[in-house]
Records
---
Amino acid sequence: MRDQDPMDVAVSTSWLDHHGVGAGPVTDVVRLTGGTQNILIKFTRGGADYVLRRPPLHKRPNSDETMRREARLLAALAGSAVPHARLVAVCEDLDVAGCVFFVMEAVDGFTATAEIPEPHASTPELQHAMGLSMVDSAAALSLVDPAVLGETQLARADGWIDRQVGRWRRQLDSYHDLDGWPGPQLDGVEETGRWLEEHRPNRWRKGLIHGDYHFGNVMFRRDSPAVAAVVDWELGTVGDPLLDLGHLLATWPDPTETRTVGLARQLDSLPERDELIAHYAARSGRDLSDFDWYQVLACYRLAIILEGTHARACAGKTDPALGRRFHGVAQALLDQARRFVRS
């Protein structure tokens, strides 16, 4: 699995044998596509389907720790009501593949950003239930005791809510290190940051957060509207789970749009914001009286993350068209935030 081969079958077979993952030859090796920078490889062994997840071929400095953190979180979710792919085995020995990787069970389902099959595509009741199922999964995560990640991770979350604006503002400022970026030409970024600092909730409760919860990171069952698995846990940590609901609603498809927004096709029967919030409150038992703050934070945070792609595009490090598109999405998120800020 070194150099340009993301999965050396001979090396992988030996490692799988050692960890008791299936038996016999490794077959049907397919690299899965998607928006993640990490690599996903599906394969079959002993009549079962698995997925190997590893960093990109050219690792980032934190790639191995990201894999470790994601594997720890998946292990911690075992036995919970959160739909997820079951962790099978983790490799932390860099001599095996030059990186940390893990194997999980394959999940049969579809991601609505890539496809929406029948009967979901033409059944309003299924579409409505899909939206509520996404909230059910987020609420289930909020009910998991965050201590499952260990006392160290739990202690690190102290002051999480106080650090958010400064943490993301520093990330935005760090883009000045990229040659060619003209600076944060984003209307409302300063106004939104000030509002977040001035209206920070007085109380919050620690919990597990996914960190990037939206349609692209959820797989639905093909035989029902239920979520089959929440995927891409690399940003998972301990914080306030209301951020996940904020992120979901910040990226929720706008029913007034005539075009498909982030989905494989338009879904006209998804629940509206008020119903989603009420559903989450009922399922999680959390106080949502300050929820607007979390949606504004999600908009602010995601806008800054996306502006990073624009900054890298300005520096010639990624596709210019993608950079321009993400800059536009970042501005739209800040426009959304200002509607709450000014209400």
Note: The beta strands are 27-31, 39-45, 48-54, 87-91, 101-105, 207-209, 218-220, 227-230, 237-239.
---
Amino acid sequence: MRDTGIRALQTAAVAVAFALALSGCSAAPDPPATSTENAPPETLASGLKVPWSVVPVEGGGALISQRDEGNVLELTPDRELRVAGALPDVSAGGEAGLNGLAVHEEGGVRWLYAYHATADDNRVVRMPLTGEPGSLSLDLAREEVVLRGIPVSANHNGGRIAFGPDGMLYVATGDAGQREASQDPASLSGKILRLSPDGSPAPGNPGGTAVYSLGHRNVQGLAWSADGTLWASEFGQDTWDELNRIVPGGNYGWPLHEGVAGADGFVDPVRAWKPSEASPSGIAVYDGGTVLVAGLRGERLWIVDGSDPSSAWATFTGEFGRLRDVVAGPRGSIWVLTNNTDGRGSPEKGDDRLLQVTLPEG
């Protein structure tokens, strides 16, 4: 039974009142109300403008994408913010712009990968990431297009990218308003793609193309458990948002089904929420098996027992506004990225922020 992450989160009441009250791997009664009043998370960065993705880098810093400006910021180990580079071809509008980031080393080169919109498409590009912590820089002169031709839209634009434990690049795309394209294996819309680092279809993909799974509406979160399970968060239409366990070649139903349908030939979500409770974006796995889901409209962080997704509770509800991304930080911490400056939130002084929650060992 994979319960170490749950135990750690149970004990975190000292730091952030994660009172989960989980018992084994079965559902438990509702936990007591949680609050961060007495031990608020630490602010690592503030004044961010429409941040979308955060990637920890060696030395204790991070890279942060700013969707509308097209800037990649470095949060230095000394907690200063500086521009590491500005991608030149970013075209921002609605949910499109500079979205997901990922760092990967290959052939002795440390590459920064980015998913961004242009006037014609969404594409994934990469460029060398040079310099030392505190002075990181994007070598834009050596930028390479990894994948082009992903349909772009102001809504349902996808945008999350991540390298899996297999060393392959996973790319989450939205349906871009083309609902039926999600069911078309020849389209890049409404899919999770699996690529080699150079952008070619990864070996072993079902069908031999870049498509790894289909039938998605708008995936914005990708993360892996210690056992290799791929989890994905997905925006629904009006009824259900989803947390999905991804299997190769799986069809997740959109636009034919939303939420749990029990229909032959389709994979149901392991967890579904009303959009007012979630609108899930970035996700992370804590301590190998606990799935953390950042909620935008829901303004909360969902905590899901990966071994029994019926066990799920929320924290930070309404305390920091819209939450765009969550990642595992250094030394047993998690980092949470707010998103109140995107035109859909209610920014307060200092927004947007990168917050650090340090959890005690369990």
Note: The first helix runs from residue 4 to 11.
---
Amino acid sequence: MDLDVFVSTHRAEWDRLDALLGRRRLTGAEADELVSLYQRTATHLSLIQSSAPDPQLTGRLSQLVARARSAVTGTRRASWRDVTRFLAHGFPAAVYRSRRWWVPTALLSIVVGIILGWWIGTHPEVQASIAAPSQLRELTRPGGEYETYYSSHPAASFAAQVWTNNAWAAAQCLILGVFLGLPVLWILFQNMLNLGVGLGLMSSAGRLDTFLGLILPHGLLELTAVFVAAGTGLRLGWTVIDPGPRSRRTALAEEGRAAVGMAIGLALVLFVSGAIEGFVTPSGLPTWARIGVGILAELAFLTYVFVLGGRAARAGETGDVEAAERSATVPTAA
């Protein structure tokens, strides 16, 4: 492409588009002309970027196309309608669509946690490598550190701290999934190792019932949220390897936007589990009542995902932003 000839040929169109964008009101004919010039200028920009990139010209046309797009499509502000749509359709549908990733992730992780707990609980030499016998007794005795951990700080500040830590772990799973999912596997293993250590040490001290009474009220919902994040991260990593009929860029953009939305939704879920951990787990309620709260919270979330989310997914909801908010994509052959 001869860039000078190209610029000379189309400069008048760009100047005309710039002039129309500077007007406060347009007639019907001028509005139609603006749309036509916007589409043609966008095509010119694409041609220049692919054939004869010139930083100064590309910058000018990019700014012009952005202004024109804003004028044609109009600016849009987030509203309570968007929040309602996200909570009622987008988030549960995204979680539902990822179920083939996070459900197996959850099952395998729990098996790994149980195996680690059994290995630690039945092998004194492994326990000795974790801490000295006196420290282990302090951890597992009645009124020891495992029990007092949940009441060591004021409930509100403890809940906030737990929520922050768990939300960060979930966000890491979602963000780092793009690296082929490998960091996600490490995060999962660390979580299951922590669970296995507690399970093994408390069971070896004959206090498994106490441990489950402390971990289950908040742990059911908390671990489910982590498994959802991990499964979604693994799915994002697989998208890098196999984007399917979509281009890799388009696939990553779509799945990445859905993952960001899930990070927000899971932060809300983890807020609930953090509140349970801060106020219910260390409370004076009977063990059956505390575990009952955890089971109810878990069942509520699963119902939300598989009933509400399943219905939304079958209706075509993906968890991505609305079509009008997405960038245009070039069709690809299947």
Note: Confidence is low (pLDDT under 50) at residues 323-334.
---
Amino acid sequence: MKTEAADIPEPDRVPGAPHPRHTTRVIGQDAAAAAFLQAAQGDRLHHAWLLTGPRGVGKATLAWAIARWLLAESGRADLAVDPDMPEARRIAALSEPRLALIRRPWDDKTGRLRAEITVDEIRKLLSFFHLSAAEGGRRVAIIDAADDMNIPAANALLKVLEEPPSDALILLIAHQPARLLPTIRSRCRTLRLSPLPPRQMSAILSDMGLNEDAEALSALSDGSVGEALRLAGQGGLDRYQDLVDLFATLPRLDRLAASKFADGAAGRAGADGDPFDLTITVLDRFVTRLARAGLMGAPLPQAARGEGALMARLSPDDHAARIWAEAQARLSARARTGRAVNLDPAALVMDMVLELAQLPPAQASLTKA
């Protein structure tokens, strides 16, 4: 049965937050915005821009602000555009004919979003440039996220970048730019966006009404407002607390609690989020923070009750830090593969938890427990 368009989740929207096209303010990324404006106003506007940085720091928000600024031809010295301008209203409604959005498509056969951006989506981009050329004027395409492209899609995009259409600008959003073809990266000008410092993050989250959890969300989101909102909207802090409590049972892992945690990764993805993606995120953050703890000491502020003491026990030195860091890279790759081939989420998470529980630093805590 065909899914209604209104019921299809947007893969480039953080659950619990508005889509970036509806966000008119770019927070804390003044340097990146200024670099673009300097190029645009100096007639040095490159045909392709690669926006990089951690997930949720404002890359998509900046991309949509650039699109509005260009298509509205505001000429302002900043990226602010009146949301009531006709171009801005059409962009918000995804009805602007001079704008194309490329993102992971919906698969009616599986009832899920595809794990990758396919070559068919890039072919749509080629058609957009060809058909919109007759309209004249500036055209903008946003690819979110470019590192979601599979190899055929990446090769198709490369051909576009090698022979860019006139009066066209392509904005590629990449959370992990190393996954892109080097030839794609070399044909783009890069805008690097940085995480926000904890104090600024906490202030922003408090302004958004997240006063009680602002400090923990700031710690767990690594300076990403978007990630903090996603974690808050999906109960990410509770999931992280469950994970900390689970690993506190080491070296004799509580198998029942582990199974319950893994089962929480099951369930269909929807507009409110993806349980599997949330679980992988909190696992990744936990292991990353373990690795940092071995090098820099227990994290402050803590993201969960008992986190500091647990990390001091499981990652007491740089040797343990290296083991956790290697595990993080290994499990991150496994999660991507599992998502691509639709492995059972609960089984995959359970395997990850068991592997982590058997690492030497986790078992070494037996003598210290």
Note: The longest helix spans residues 318-340.
